[in-house]
Design brief:
By secondary structure, this protein is mainly alpha-helical. The protein has helices spanning 4-28, 32-42, 58-70, 72-82, 94-109, 114-128, 134-149, and strands at 47-48, 51-52. The protein has a single domain, classed as N-utilizing Substance Protein B Homolog, Chain A (Orthogonal Bundle). It is 69% helix and 3% strand. It has a two-stranded antiparallel sheet with strand order 1-2. The longest helix has 25 residues, at 4-28. The chain is globular.
């Protein structure tokens, strides 16, 4: 039986993997199917000399990646509205862009509470940018997006 904490960790890992997969798709031009298959085969719980990859929630990972791709135009428009004028999403770092797309997909297409989505993806931003201002930027943009997507939650 999987404990509550293990389930939470698996969901966190799935979110991280979704951001990485979306980034890889943008950079390489690979399809959802190809990237998903690669991540599930070579990341989810895999062990390598360099260390182990966390086990991820496969269902959440698949949903995030598919929703991010299927609803990308909507999520990108939401992100653009949250950004400063004259600073469109295509000028954002590709890792942060992938993060916004995964978080936006979860905010708009899933029942996860917005505060959970914001906290989880800010933690991912901290993992990628431990020394920078990016986590605060991600927090501000996701807060704006969450208020637009789920105003009743605030």
């Amino acid at each position: 039986m999987t404990s509550r904490e293990e389930k939470r960790q698996m969901k966190s890992a799935a979110r991280l993997y979704a951001v990485q997969a979306l980034y890889q798709m943008e950079i390489s031009g690979q399809t959802v199917k190809a990237v998903s298959r690669e991540f599930e085969a070579h990341r989810f719980g895999a062990s390598y000399e360099e260390g182990d990859f966390a086990e991820g929630d496969t269902g959440l990972f698949r949903s995030l990646v598919e929703h991010a791709v299927n609803w990308q135009a909507l999520v990108d428009q939401m992100t653009d509205r949250a950004l400063v004028a004259k600073w469109p999403i295509d000028r954002i770092d590709p890792v942060i862009r992938a993060l916004f797309r995964a978080a936006g997909a979860e905010l708009t297409q899933m029942d996860t509470p917005p505060k959970v989505v914001i906290n989880e993806f800010v933690d991912i931003a901290r993992a990628f940018f431990p020394e920078g201002r990016e986590p605060a930027f991600v927090n501000a943009v996701l807060d704006h997006m969450a208020r637009e997507a789920k105003p009743a939650s605030f």
